[in-house]
Design a protein that fits this description.
With 167 residues, the chain is α/β, with parallel strands linked by helices. It has helices at 8-27, 52-55, 62-74, 92-100, 142-157, and strands spanning 34-39, 43-49, 83-88, 105-110, 136-137. Strand 3, helix 4 (92-100) and strand 4 form a beta-alpha-beta unit. The radius of gyration is 15 Å and the shape is globular. The chain starts with 7 loop residues before the first helix and ends in a 10-residue tail after the last helix.
Length: 167
């Protein structure tokens, strides 16, 4: 994927905000995934974290919750011009919502070997596949994003923090 449009001055700080949300999710006992939606004129219009356990809702992924907040902030469902930043590669449900919301582009951290719908398992954002193309880049602050997930699941398994044999 061509990453020439990645603007560290804008994208890294927004990913850091998504990481803050992910940390909060982990502290709440949720899988540590965070999302931020940024609009070029309005700045950050949504911040969310995974809340499946808290809300007892299988659709309460960080991206879905952020899209809902952004639609409310924009007073409409079309989020044209917006960038979604997420600490983990979107799953099929979230990728579909991103397409439906007409989000302009996506930046994510860690790849998701189980549910990744952008590059790992599926290529939902492949140009020309749907009526709306979504440029994307993965691997932005990937190590920080992956470390949060590894630590969370290590703690869930009761493995010591020094155990480097995670899957």
């Amino acid at each position: 994927m061509d990453v020439s449009w990645l603007d560290d001055n804008q994208d890294i700080p927004q990913m850091q905000l998504a990481l803050q949300e992910a940390r909060c999710a982990g502290e709440d006992g949720e899988v540590p995934v965070g999302a931020v939606i940024w609009h070029p004129e309005r700045g950050v219009i949504a911040r969310a974290r995974n809340s499946k356990e808290t809300l007892r809702d299988p659709t309460a992924h960080a991206e879905i919750l952020a899209i809902g907040q952004a639609a409310e902030a924009m007073d409409g469902w079309r989020l044209q011009g917006c960038t979604l930043y997420c600490t983990l590669e979107p799953c099929p449900m979230c990728a579909g919502a991103i397409l439906q919301a007409r989000i302009e582009r996506v930046v994510f951290g860690a790849a998701d070997s189980r549910w990744g719908a952008v590059e790992t398992k599926l290529g939902v954002f492949e140009p020309g596949l749907f009526n709306h193309d979504v440029p994307w880049v993965g691997g932005v602050l990937a190590e920080e994003s992956a470390d949060l997930l590894r630590s969370f699941f290590r703690a869930c398994r009761g493995a010591p923090e020094s155990d480097q044999n995670e899957s």
